Write a sequence for this structure.
């Protein structure tokens, strides 16, 4: 069902301005711009070398980085997709930054935070770290409760995309469901059939660091191969085409190899934004902006 026209019109005239004005440092903006265009260039080169013609989505992972870094990339090259790992940080950033940003939640996800995440970040585009039915249920509920009254660009019917995280490396420290397990299948079926506000977008893996460090565009990474095999398995089990499920895999160290092995989306942080500060020292607003209006 589509929303009545009068409601749409009302919505588009309401503009929510951030209460703090964010000042982007031009030198910092230039650095970030240069970094992201280098990544885009490397993605393009890899696609060319591998004869890949589909578009690859670049999620700029901005966790623990200030809101102005995100604004710099969203304002000028109009980069859209940003990834965050921590709920409170994402909620705060989403309030400060334009609603045209497409947020990805990629971090470890606690069940008791799911509803708030989906409800309080109206322009949340995807949650990539889903590994239980309970989380799907709560994300679905939260998405239904979000306030879209001030949004001009998201339709009320837009579903929240979810990726099921697969623990392809089997490390105890990693979340995600077991590869080719009943659980993986039942989560995918549940997301597809029981969650009217969610869309099953695909599968995600992080993978082992050692394998990631050894990955080049020419070598094969076992985690990436596993995720691809899992997609085939899920598609067969659900009787859908493989092309209906995306693969989210590849980070700063290994995104070229991930693309060569079939990734649809890479999540790159430190190569764009530089090393991250410890969580205790991370700031959403830089000192100079505090108290300014
Ligand atoms: C932090 C993070 C990334 C980005 O890692 P970099 O090595 O900085 O590119 C990607 N994916 C997930 C799930 C992350 O937590």
């Amino acid at each position: 069902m589509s929303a009545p026209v009068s409601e749409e019109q009302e919505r588009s005239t309401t503009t929510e301005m951030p209460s703090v004005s964010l000042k982007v440092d031009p030198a910092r903006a230039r650095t970030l711009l240069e970094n992201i265009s280098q990544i885009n260039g490397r993605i393009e080169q890899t696609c060319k070398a591998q004869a890949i013609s589909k578009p690859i989505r670049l999620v700029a992972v901005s966790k623990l980085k200030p809101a102005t870094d995100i604004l710099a990339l969203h304002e000028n090259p109009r980069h859209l997709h940003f990834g965050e790992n921590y709920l409170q940080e994402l909620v705060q950033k989403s309030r400060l930054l334009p609603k045209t940003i497409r947020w990805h939640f990629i971090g470890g996800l606690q069940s008791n935070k799911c509803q708030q995440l989906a409800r309080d970040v109206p322009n949340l585009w995807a949650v990539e770290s889903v590994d239980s039915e309970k989380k799907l249920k709560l994300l679905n509920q939260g998405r239904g409760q979000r306030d879209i009254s001030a949004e001009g660009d998201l339709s009320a019917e837009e579903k929240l995309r979810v990726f099921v995280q697969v623990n392809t490396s089997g490390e105890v420290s990693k979340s995600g469901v077991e590869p080719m397990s009943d659980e993986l299948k039942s989560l995918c079926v549940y997301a597809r059939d029981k969650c009217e506000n969610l869309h099953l977008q695909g599968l995600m893996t992080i993978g082992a660091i050692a394998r990631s460090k050894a990955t080049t565009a020419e070598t094969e990474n076992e985690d990436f191969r596993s995720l691809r095999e899992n997609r085939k398995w899920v598609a067969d089990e659900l009787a859908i085409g493989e092309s209906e499920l995306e693969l989210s895999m590849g980070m700063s160290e290994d995104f070229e190899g991930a693309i060569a092995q079939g990734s649809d989306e890479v999540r790159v942080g430190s190569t764009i934004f530089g090393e991250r500060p410890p969580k205790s020292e991370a700031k959403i607003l830089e000192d100079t902006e505090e108290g300014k209006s």
Summary: The two ends are 41 Å apart (CA to CA). The pocket of pyridoxal-5'-phosphate is lined by residues 61, 63, 85, 106-107, 206, 251-253, 267-271 (CB under 6 Å). Residues 26-50 form the longest helix (25 residues). Residues 1-16 have pLDDT under 50 and may be disordered.
